[in-house]
Each structure stands twice: as C-alpha cells, then as structure tokens.
Amino acid sequence: MTTATSVSSRDNAALLAQLNARPARAEGSAAEINNRFLKLLVAQMNNQDPLNPLDNAQVTTQMAQISTVTGISDLAATVGKMTAQFSSLQALQAAQLTGRSVLVNGNALTAGDGPAVGGVQLAAPADGVTVEIRDANGITVRTLSLGAMAEGLNSFRWDGLNDAGRAVPAGRYTFSARASAGGQPVAVEPLAAARVEGVRVSGADTQLVVSGLGPVPFADIKQIL
Fold it and tell me: CATH 2.60.40.4070 spans which residues of the chain?
C-alpha cells in the first residue's frame, strides 16, 4: 500500500510541475493533464495505507494548484481570442483611413500641391516655436516662427514659399523644429503628414502603408487630418 501511495504522489507532483511549466498550452492539453491528475488522485486515495492516510492539507493544496493552473490556462485562451478579435477590429478601423492623411513621426514636407502640412509634439508648453525648412541639399529655404504653442501635438502649414516670398520648386523637403519657454529649451518632436495608401496585417500587428514612408504601425499614428 505504501508503495502505491508514494508513486501516485510523485505522479501528481510531476503533473503539477508539467502544467505549471506550460501555463499557456492548448485547452485540450490542459484538460488532459487535469483529468490524469484527478484519476491519479482517486487511485492514490483508494490505495492509501489505512495506518498512514493521506494528509488532508496536502490533498487540498494539490487540488488548489491544479485548479489555479487550469484557470490560468483557460484565461490565457480567452485573452488570446480577445486579442484576435481586437486585431480584426483594428484592421477594419485602419482600412477606413485609406486615402486620408495622417501625422506620423518624421520630418518630411512636400511642396508643389497646395500648402504642406507638418506637426510638432511638445513635451511642455512653449512661448516660442521655430521651424526651419531645408531643400535636398540641406540649405534652409524658409524659417517659420510659429509663436506660442500648447503642450502636446500641434500642426502647422507651409505655403511653399521661401524666405524671399517666391515659390520653391516642387518636391520633397525636410524640416527641424526648436522650442523654448522662458528662455529654456523645450523638447520637441517633428511630425510628418502623409497619405495612407493601404493596410497591412501581420499576425496581431496592423500597419498602415503610408506614402513616402512605407509601413507604419497603427499605434504610431498621431493625428488624422
């Protein structure tokens, strides 16, 4: 009797260790291990030594452990299903942006087709923000004084003129920005406006295919214009 009890205890302990080591296994595998655990526990109780019965605290602890780990496995499966549904919903929302313009991380401006739109994201309110626009050779063609701006995301427009008031050649330009408050610099991040051409879904990730920038994570979209 004692040998049967000892072997069953080790087997249950091994099953608990196996399930704890792989909490994110498939539901079928977790259920199978759970059933094996219960069968071994019943066999352990049926073959226990009457003079040395099972410790109630030990049995309760083992059952609590198998219940907890099985619950974690079920929770992981539920979260996985919710994640898949969220990804599908996000892809559907992203598809509605096709043909729209958005602000994303970047410093590009395009001249020649109406006013060019850019943006800056400020870490704190600023009493002065300046944007310098450069051509492909790195030469500054226009300096914009945008004045005071609030903390967070702010957009601006460039009319496509240089500092002399003449239209610049159509094409791609870049810009840099600096900001200050009370004479102290304020951290500023440049944002580029680009047109959404399509949507790409890779696993649980949804990306927007943005003109001139390629795939951009959906979460990186700062503003829809």
Answer: 101-194
